[in-house]
């Protein structure tokens, strides 16, 4: 994500200014020049104001003031203490525009960037200043409005713009307006407010500035605002920024914007669907120019509610469709391919199946356009293990998909060769489950390729099976080591439970009668619970022990990792869990039998304490168990997700 990182760099990056060439002079000449300049300055001041000879404060106001001198003013602006600053300003009128830091910031810069606590300070200072002084830039050309936009200080930005609307058009040394600064820092609220105060004819919506703004909006996940900007100026879809990125490519670098690549769960998705978005209040810009207002529902970039209440994924998909439509309006096939194919190939590598599906629906010919390595979208999907994109080929395409499965890449590999290559994955835990996932991929691709392709050799003379065996030999050893280590640890626990449960069956609580050996508490309900739970603990722990022994004695061939080993591991873990629960129930009922005659409520703390180890086991082992069971017995990653035929 290098491109995305580059776009999020601070607008306050300090760049050294070009220095002036050094003057060649002797030391004496320098001293003489300094003395002459000082004398001239003194004569000039004396001529203008004779009181300089007797007025020390006035002399201080005109000579030798810098960063240290204005430190009290800096602190006052930082803390929002207008009373302290007012005393300094009354003594020194230049203090309002004085540079109070090495970055050439003024007090207004500092106050505008400190948030709500300095609003009164900003308001009083702005009232005291001429409007032309409000745009004084710092070292990097940033005005106080840039600072307010960067930190999201809406109140300060409103105060500044009300007095000098021209501040909205001021650019810094990087050519960025306050709107760009607000978008770069992700301040959605102030972005909405600045948009409502900006005319649609503003230069920041066109040319390089417009492209930069559009790409920044995509980077900041402001997809609805980007959509409105693109509708107003469709030509932005075809232009590149200074980094050579189009908006479509920038969107391809945002896999999290699409539902297929979102890492959030279903509950969050439902929440996001109903509650996402920030509603910006409807207001007209000053001057009443409703027709040209950014908040106008007809001509502006946004409707009165700039960000509609729709999920981020829906907004991104809507923006994607508009970008594709605008790209396809170009009456030049080669240019369309240059604009469209690099982003969609990037999306195929990231696994954004919505992106790939929309491009295929809008431009089906793109399926036959291969990259420099002779790979189509589906070759990339298999190579990088994106089952959602591969599912488009299996379930959402007509019979023409068979033409795609016959194509070879630049190295003579068919789809099955690519499935045989090892691809590191963070989608599963542990080497054993990764080996299982790789086998599932190989089997699934086998179903779609032609029978002759299963034994086809690539340019290196290797069949798909040879490629798979060679590429996965290290993973096979790692999976074996992981399986044996897990099984060995669980075997010790299962053996202990078997031993305890077996011994408890012959040492019943309360003892037996001396004549017939019948348990003394045989008629107690707690004794019946003890007997059943102890028997269940013995049988389930024995089952668990046998499963883990089966894992330890396995021959560990490749296909053992597909079903046999994961099935034994899941049965063993489930049996071990129930054996531990049963053992604790048996122990609790035994204590109840022995102590109930003295303490009637003893079952309460026993039940609570018994829940502790059960809960710990569930927390530590259930995620692994669920993953194994889902991967082995679940519906699978290649299931049909959509009935729509895209081609």
From TrEMBL:
Domain of life: Eukaryota
Region of interest called Disordered, as start-end residue ranges on this chain: 1-59
Keyword Transmembrane: yes
InterPro entries, alphabetized: Ankyrin_rpt, Ankyrin_rpt-contain_sf, PGG_dom
Compositional bias segments (type: Polar residues): 1-12
Keywords, alphabetical: ANK repeat, Membrane, Transmembrane, Transmembrane helix
Stretches assigned to the PGG domain: 480-592
ANK repeat intervals: 140-172
Transmembrane segments: 486-506, 526-552, 573-595, 601-620
Biased composition (Acidic residues): 34-43
Key word Transmembrane helix present: yes
Protein name: PGG domain-containing protein
